[in-house]
Amino acid sequence: METLFNKHDIYIYETPVEIVRSLMNKIDWDCRLLSIKGPKGVGKSTLMKQYIKQNYPPGSRKALYCSADSLYFTRNTLLDLADSFVKRGGERLFIDEIHKYDGWSKEIKEIYDLYPRLKVAISGSSLLQILGGDADLSRRCIPYTMQGLSLREYLHFEKGIDLPAWELKDILENSWDVCEVVKKACCPLEFFKEYLSRGYYPFFYENPDTYYTSIENVVNYIIDFELPKIRRVDVGNTRKLKALLYVLANNIPFQVDISSLAGKIEIERNTVLAYLKHLDEAKLIKLLYSDLLSVKKMQKPDKIFIDNTNLLCAIAGKEGDIGTMREIFAVNQLSYAHKVEYGKDKGDFKIDGKYLFEIGGREKSFQQIADIPDSYVFADDIDIPSGAKLPLWLLGFLY
């Protein structure tokens, strides 16, 4: 165990705390068991190490950070670790990459039951199953989801501009006030295009020159390792999954033709539907349906987007169609805390079953949503509201 503590000391010492994701203050760190899941590269590991650095003095043995793929676990179990840690006076155990440990949920459940004074935080893939799996932790574990940087967080990380987040209702009802606060601090349109191409993943700051290569590595890791291990995807089909992702990235997301997709990558229709579901859960794409309440297991989605604009640029090898980029941005930022459905012939998107949003450029009109209550146009290339026509960048201040 001393080897784990030695590694812990190095990890914590090397962790920067100058800028911390806003999720830090939303997590109830005092609950007995919590999970943070999200795609690789969004900063889950850093967040846990930052919490330790902010709350425990150097050399403290009350908290321990380790990764589930550590060599320690070739000879020891999670139960062994928890038992030794508690006997040494440990209080908080942080286990990263938990999905890399086979049977993790059973042992975490047993740790929860055996050591009521121990607080445990685990992190892992977006594919992590808290409900179901080998052991159902839904009644014990408080789950949190982490995604890439919002436009607001990008301004903080990249430009040192610190602005608050607003609820969607505040943005819709008080757009003038929100715009005034933002515009006093910066010119948002100056940075919006930058964000769309390189502002989503925090690892941009490690090496900007290899940013898209790093994103490709994340995609390969998810498809080559996580999907076969966690969703039992046939390893022989991983190349076809990448081909599917490439096809989606290079096509404007109109209504979905599953048969056409199946033909292009030479996989049967039902397998394509299953793989689309896996890619959605892995946060590589976003599936939209016109009615979430009636979605069936193998129902085809009404529209498919790449998960975020930076990912689209990396996969396609270029910036995408500007209309597609705008819609991906809107869906990505809204999906963090809201239910997003395809609007069909009544607006681009339906939000929380109430609002209708149209997304477009400066000249976007209200033609599709005229006279419909709670309908709005979010337009690019404007920086002040005009009635129910609001700047698109406002959606980047939701978290």
Oligomer: single chain
- The average pLDDT value, as a whole number, equals 94
Termini Cα gap: 38 Å
Tally the structural domains: 2
Overall geometry: globular
Strand coverage percent: 5-15%
Please, could you describe this protein's structure?
A hairpin with a 3-residue loop joins strand 9 (349-351) and strand 10 (355-360). This protein has 399 residues and is α/β, with parallel strands linked by helices. The mean pLDDT is 94. It has two domains: 2-145, P-loop containing nucleotide triphosphate hydrolases (Rossmann fold); 152-397, no CATH class. The longest helix is centred in the middle third of the chain and has 20 residues, at 211-230. It contains 14 helices and twelve strands. A five-stranded parallel beta sheet has the order 2-3-4-1-5. Strands 8-9-10-11-12 form a five-stranded mixed beta sheet, covered by helices on one side.
Protein topology:
Blueprint: H1 2-14, E1 33-37, H2 44-55, E2 63-67, H3 78-87, E3 92-96, H4 104-114, E4 119-124, E5 142-145, H5 151-159, H6 168-173, H7 175-185, H8 188-198, H9 211-230, H10 238-249, H11 258-265, H12 269-281, E6 285-288, E7 303-306, H13 309-316, H14 322-335, E8 340-342, E9 349-351, E10 355-360, E11 375-379, E12 389-391
Helix pairs in contact: 3-4, 9-13, 11-12
